[in-house]
Q: What sequence folds into this?
């Protein structure tokens, strides 16, 4: 498949899913296919600037139950670049405030003849429930602290663009792991591609139990900085916390903010990522955000590429008769 | 004079140390005798190959009436009980309004009499309006027939109030049925805190939230001499605390629910709200701890915490869906399948946990087939393999994660005061 022939292509045979709900349940090969597809779209659209009308006639609904500006904009732009129609639906303007359940809301949208739903919700698993109840593609744009698969993919895409293969690369995810869907999607994607993952932050935000998944847990940023090839600095999600998990922002920044001083002790080609929005002075200082190793703006562009790829895999033409995995092939426990 | 002969079954009555094949003759609603009988009865049940036991008692049932009749009513809930083999239930008072007055107790009795199904024993509130601020009129509730006291749904949070409740209930020899949870530790939680909650990004309820409160209540029970009954123990650590308290001779009893000895928090991976209950499904190690507690008697009883919720309430995002799981119609099947068939407990222990001891803890005149006793009897087919179908449930709600499971063992006849109130396939 080359950029010039993309318009006549079908969704590759290696992609069997109807939805993109999380990265946990994808294989390494499926994640590579997602990334390769995104790369193709990035090239074919001249760095995501040009249109490539492969989804003309499709309708994508942004169903956002939680505030978002950048992710929604990114999905909208990606869909429009591919020629799809986009409808924005936000909970505050909907009948949800009149007591309708979110499943009924989604069913109503489905009845209007749409092809995919991009859903964001504050509760983990909501996209999975929608996928069980709707007969259209569901793309998770963030479900509470659970997953944000396109964010994970675009972070990994950005690293891969610079470093090539991720096998053996050491990536530190620093900050509010407990409340971060970005951390979880990164973790699964990185592990499946062979990277070494270090989760770093205070024990109130980074549970030692993550070790049971084979990743390293550290509470000491100074110790891990020299060992990392990539640092992904995650935002402190004050809005999701019951009780502040550290004594003060000042103390947090003292222990865990990435500073120029800490940068001097890192590998010279250390890459800095941040999923944004960033709290300058909390997760990192301004100098670090704007330093030459910062991929923060690459991430934004690559977000478009990844979302174009995902939308195409979800809504694009499939070979007739090609097997798809049913929406809810979620594991059901049998009793033993 | 009417007679009922239950012929040729395996009669299991732990209260009399009976476990043998025999006949049970019922006359005028009471057990007449256990022994070979050639009597010609008005009605005969052939129980060959079946287990005949004193009527099962579920001491933890939410009937929802008054106030939440869209979830369950006294009539539908007690029909579900009969279909599950229960001849008695104790109903928990977290209704709207809560059962904290004589009039409210009387209302339940009236409704139960009108339903004419199984026995309904009323649990009264510990605190007035279930607010946890001052004692309910416990003495008058006892006079009205309340058999125990509980603010279940929530813990009795004020430690001094709990202490006073123990002291006061002691005067009537009534137990306090305690929901053990430190609310600050489980705030916002929807499932067990552990690796699964970590991966799913769902707020967890740590085992410590239960264990800390069990520890407090054991201490208060010991200092006052009041009777503590720990409801729905879900953690291995909780079992351990109760075991140690019993070894010291504390006045403590406990119950466990079939879902807590069957399912784990892995069930939440599908984000199905039917797996959301409080206390939550725990880990495999906790399941083993609960089973060990049932085997050695640390946990006295099996109770279901039957908690119906109408589908439109349960079919919501996980954090908005209410806690609760149906229990009455799957309890026997789950207990036989999980505990009896694999040889972890025998039939005698199962009947003790589901009839003898609940009767003793509640102080009700049930739970035995002793001649002269009220003839509440359950007949169970121990080998019947059946598929759970929530659509066929008598309960008004369908919130069971066991839908579609194949279970072994089912009540085939439920007899209340000598009258056959339920027969499988004949209702």
A:
């Amino acid at each position: 498949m080359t950029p010039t022939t993309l318009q006549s292509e079908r969704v590759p045979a290696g992609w069997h899913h109807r939805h993109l709900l999380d990265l946990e349940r994808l294989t390494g090969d499926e994640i590579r296919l997602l990334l390769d597809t995104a790369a193709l779209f990035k090239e074919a659209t001249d760095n995501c600037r040009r249109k490539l009308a492969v989804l003309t006639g499709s309708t994508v609904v942004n169903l956002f139950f939680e505030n978002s500006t950048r992710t929604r904009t990114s999905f909208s732009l990606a869909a429009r670049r591919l020629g799809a129609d986009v409808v924005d639906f936000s909970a505050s303007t909907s009948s949800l405030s009149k007591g309708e359940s979110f499943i009924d809301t989604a069913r109503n949208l489905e009845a209007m003849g749409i092809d995919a739903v991009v859903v964001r919700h504050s509760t983990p698993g909501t996209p999975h429930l929608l996928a069980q109840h709707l007969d259209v593609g569901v793309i998770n744009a963030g479900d509470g602290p659970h997953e944000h698969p396109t964010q994970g993919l675009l972070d990994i895409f950005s690293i891969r663009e610079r470093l090539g293969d991720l096998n053996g690369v050491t990536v530190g995810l620093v900050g509010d792991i407990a409340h971060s869907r970005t951390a979880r999607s990164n973790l699964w994607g990185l592990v499946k591609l062979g990277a070494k993952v270090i989760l770093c932050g205070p024990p109130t935000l980074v549970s030692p139990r993550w070790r049971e998944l084979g990743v390293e847990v550290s509470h000491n940023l100074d110790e891990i900085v020299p060992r990392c090839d990539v640092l992904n600095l995650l935002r402190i999600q004050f809005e999701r916390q019951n009780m502040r998990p550290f004594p003060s922002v000042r103390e947090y920044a003292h222990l865990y903010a990435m500073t120029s001083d800490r940068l001097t002790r890192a590998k010279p080609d250390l890459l800095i990522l941040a999923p944004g929005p960033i709290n300058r002075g909390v997760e990192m200082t301004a100098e670090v955000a704007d330093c030459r190793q910062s991929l923060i703006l690459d991430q934004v562009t690559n977000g478009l590429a990844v979302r174009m790829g995902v939308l195409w895999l979800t809504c694009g033409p499939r070979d007739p008769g090609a097997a798809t995995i049913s929406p809810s092939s979620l594991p059901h426990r049998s009793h033993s | 004079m009417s007679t009922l002969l239950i012929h040729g079954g395996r009669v299991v009555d732990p209260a009399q140390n009976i476990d043998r094949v025999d006949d049970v003759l019922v006359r005028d609603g009471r057990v007449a005798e256990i022994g070979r009988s050639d009597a010609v009865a008005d009605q005969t049940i052939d129980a060959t190959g079946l287990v005949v036991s004193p009527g099962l008692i579920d001491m933890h049932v939410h009937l929802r009436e008054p106030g939440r009749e869209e979830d369950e009513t006294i009539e539908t809930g007690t029909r579900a009980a009969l279909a599950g083999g229960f001849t008695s239930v104790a109903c928990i008072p977290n209704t709207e309004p809560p059962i904290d007055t004589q009039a409210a107790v009387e209302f339940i009795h009236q409704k139960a009499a009108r339903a004419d199904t199984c026995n309904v024993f009323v649990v009264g509130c510990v605190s007035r309006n279930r607010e946890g601020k001052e004692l309910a009129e416990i003495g008058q509730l006892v006079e009205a027939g309340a058999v125990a006291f509980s603010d279940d749904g929530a813990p009795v949070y004020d430690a001094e109030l709990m202490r006073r409740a123990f002291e006061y209930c002691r005067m009537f020899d009534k137990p306090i049925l305690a929901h053990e949870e430190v609310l600050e530790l489980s705030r916002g939680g929807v499932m067990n805190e552990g690796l699964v909650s970590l991966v799913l990004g769902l707020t967890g309820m740590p085992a410590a939230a239960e264990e800390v409160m069990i520890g407090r209540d054991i201490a208060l029970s010991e200092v006052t001499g009041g009777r503590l009954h720990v409801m729905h123990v879900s953690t291995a650590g909780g079992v351990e605390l109760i075991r140690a308290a019993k070894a010291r001779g504390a006045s403590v009893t406990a119950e466990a629910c079939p879902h807590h000895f069957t399912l784990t928090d892995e069930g939440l991976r599908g984000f199905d709200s039917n797996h959301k209950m409080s206390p939550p499904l725990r880990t495999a190690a906790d399941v083993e701890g609960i089973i060990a507690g049932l085997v050695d008697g640390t946990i006295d009883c099996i109770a279901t915490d039957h908690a119906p919720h109408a589908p439109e309430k349960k079919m919501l995002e996980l954090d908005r869906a209410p806690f609760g799981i149906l229990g009455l119609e799957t309890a026997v099947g789950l207990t036989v399948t999980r505990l009896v068939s694999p040889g972890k407990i025998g039939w005698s222990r199962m009947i003790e946990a589901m009839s003898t001891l609940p009767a003793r803890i509640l102080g009700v005149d049930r739970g035995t087939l002793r001649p002269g006793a009220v003839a509440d009897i359950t007949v169970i087919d121990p080998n019947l393999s059946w598929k759970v179908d929530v659509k066929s449930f008598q309960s008004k709600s369908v919130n069971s994660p066991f839908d579609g499971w194949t279970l072994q063992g089912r009540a085939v006849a439920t007899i209340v005061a000598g009258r056959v109130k339920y027969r499988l396939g004949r209702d």
